[in-house]
Amino acid sequence: MSNIKDKIKFVNYNIDFLNHSWKWLQDSEIKKLTNTPSFTQQQQQEWFLSLKLKSDYFIRGIKYNKKMIGVVGLKNITKTLGEYWGYIGEKEYWGKGIGKEMISYIINIAKEKDLKIIYLKVNSSNKRAIRLYEKEGFFLNKEKSTTESLYMEYILAVN
Fold first, then answer.
1. FRET partner for 70 with CA separation of 20 to 30 A, picked from 33, 57, 106, 114?
2. Where are the alpha helices (DSSP H) in 62-148?
3. Is the pTM of this model over 0.90?
4. Where in the sequence is the domain holding 44, given as residue range(s)?
5. How far is CA 71 from the centre of its chain?
């Protein structure tokens, strides 16, 4: 079996990824699992155009064997914190170990940015993602979690 790391590339997020994202995030299952609110294509375009002005946002497209399959990033970045987010929009790639590569990639980006903690919010029904996050070292913060959405943290550095 060939190595997933050799097949996956994290690339600049461009208009092609934006168009794929529109399709992916209209899928009711993906929308639910990612807690994505409803939005129009106009709102999506405005968000895309605002990216170059955002210093608290990092985004990459994910390609697998040159095929666009998802998106990953950090948002709400401060001096010490960043919020992980990501999804694989092409469902045939679910369960293949790509999520682990996404997390590893973002952990390295967070270290480059000298962040101390990465946190995420995950739909409490997204059991596959929760298992992955726990396996990769994220832990549940019960105080910040709700019934619908779990708040998980990954410690990069202890002061």
1. 114
2. 98-112, 127-135
3. yes
4. 4-155
5. 6
pLDDT at position 158 over 50? yes
Task: Give the model confidence (pLDDT) of 97-119 as tens digits.
Answer: 999 999 999 999 999 999 999 99
Q: How many domains are there within the chain?
A: 1
Amino acid at 128: R
Rounded (5°) CA angle 136-142-146: 105
Alpha carbon distance 108, 154 (integer Å): 12
What whole-number distance in Å separates Cα of residue 159 and Cα of residue 152? 19
Q: Map tokens 């946002």 to a residue.
A: 57
**What is the rounded distance in angstroms from the CA atom of residue 18 to the CA atom of residue 77?**
21
The structure tokens listed for 38 are 């409803």
- Report the pLDDT value the prediction gives residue 44, as an integer from 0 to 100: 96
Asked if 109 and 43 count as a contact pair (C-beta separation under 8 A), the reply is: no
User: In the numeric block, which tokens belong to residue 94?
Assistant: 């679910």
